[in-house]
Specification:
This protein is α+β, with helices and mostly antiparallel strands. The protein has 3 helices and 5 strands, in the order ααββαβββ. The longest helix has 64 residues. The model has no long low-confidence stretch (mean pLDDT 89).
Length: 176
């Protein structure tokens, strides 16, 4: 019986070690998958803002070439950005960096509104944070808590913002 008991214990140790190894591989894979998904969302968000930034550059070039006045170029840029959509209802916005006023947003109630005092559920003044990121690095990510459209419970939102220096604007988008 003693020898049979040792064999049984050894077999259980082998099984337990194998199960532990499988669990560790699954946990590491899930962690990596979450990291990869977040990286993909960041890249996607950055690329969308870069497209909008390029569009602003197009209108700025028209201003510089003299085919549009600054006011006309800015109005055309704001109109174009306000109409852009991706994934159905997702959008870009533009706000003025100095003074933090919304210039283009699909919600017309936000256009013309001051943004500096807007806070998320944790107290983060996220537009001030976006402007800080732009001043420090010209572009970057800001995470904050915000309810999804139609919801009331704040969830983590990822936004990417990029400054457009010629006009003192910020262009951004965010995804949940």
């Amino acid at each position: 019986m003693g020898e049979e008991m040792r064999i049984a214990v050894r077999l259980w140790l082998i099984v337990a070690t194998a199960l532990f190894g499988i669990a560790a591989v699954v946990a590491a894979s899930l962690f990596q998958m979450k990291h990869d998904l977040l990286d993909d969302r960041e890249v996607k968000t950055r690329h969308i803002v870069e497209v909008g930034h390029t569009l602003l550059g197009h209108f700025h070039e028209m201003e510089r070439a003299g085919s549009l006045t600054r006011e006309q170029a800015q109005a055309a840029a704001l109109e174009a950005i306000a109409k852009l959509r991706y994934e159905g209802s997702e959008y870009l916005w533009i706000h003025r960096i100095e003074g933090s006023v919304m210039l283009a947003h699909p919600n017309p109630k936000l256009v013309g509104q001051p943004l500096d005092d807007m806070k998320d559920s944790t107290g983060l003044q996220f537009f001030r944070e976006m402007n800080r990121v732009i001043r420090d690095k010209s572009a970057g990510f800001v995470y904050y808590m915000w309810p999804k459209p139609g919801g009331t419970e704040p969830v983590r939102k990822l936004s990417y913002v990029q400054g457009f220096a010629p006009w003192g604007w910020a262009i951004g988008t965010g995804i949940y």
